[in-house]
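Pinned message: reference record for DUF4397 domain-containing protein
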Amino acid sequence: MTSRTSLTIATAAGACTLALGVTVTPAAADSDDKAMVSVFHGVPGLTVDVYANGDELLGDFKPGTVTDPQPLDAGTYDIQVFEAGKGPEGEPAIEKKIEVPAGANATVAAHLSADGTPQLTAFVNDVSKVDAGKARLTVRHVAAAPAVDVRAGGQPVFKGLENPKEQLTEVEAGSVSADVVAAGTDTVVIGPADLDLKEGTSNVVYAWGSAEDKNLALATQTFGGMETTPQAVHAGGNGAAVSANSSGEWMAWAAAGGTVALSLLVARRFSGRRV
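Predicted structure (tokens):
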């Protein structure tokens, strides 16, 4: 099914992290007309090729993969997602115009809607400072599933989270056992999973997959260097996707936000990791 829309964003964002996540230091864009962009693939069972303005951006992009953040030129791009080997002459599974504003840090997610339709959603990553002793946690619901609650240590942290929404908060840094349950119940649909929320990190967790197909999973992306007083220099890295299968506004933009990468030259620099 093809979704054709023009996407502009003025929303909040966040980040996420499981113990297995890899920390990324949020590098500044190379110039005032750049943005930092990552891409997450959350459509289960479908390896895809991603095109931007007619040029291949990512080839053989597998589910559960998130790319390294990369500096991209600001502008508007026509993004097309094809089943691997079927583009660019074929019918795209998903197509959207994405506006990439200068100075943004964002992740574009290819995922299923609540009813199972493939779609693209752009999220702004909150890479602002966090208070001493704290970490930022963001959970994004991008699964074909009803609303969920997210618990940490058995206590709800986020309630009634619906696709394709996100919720974020600052929490005490440290390790915690987290799970995802059907909203208003104790029925676990994903997890439990150990979260290692390090001080000064911004952590994004994606709940993706399909409840009907029983392949719900978690993927994570972690950004480092958000300490109020930086204590260390973090090595660069990428957001790592991790699975936990089961039978389970950074600030408001004055202009629009959202992203996908977008020139063939830049495309070559993308690399995805899959755990």
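Pinned by admin. Summary line: The first helix runs from residue 264 to 267.
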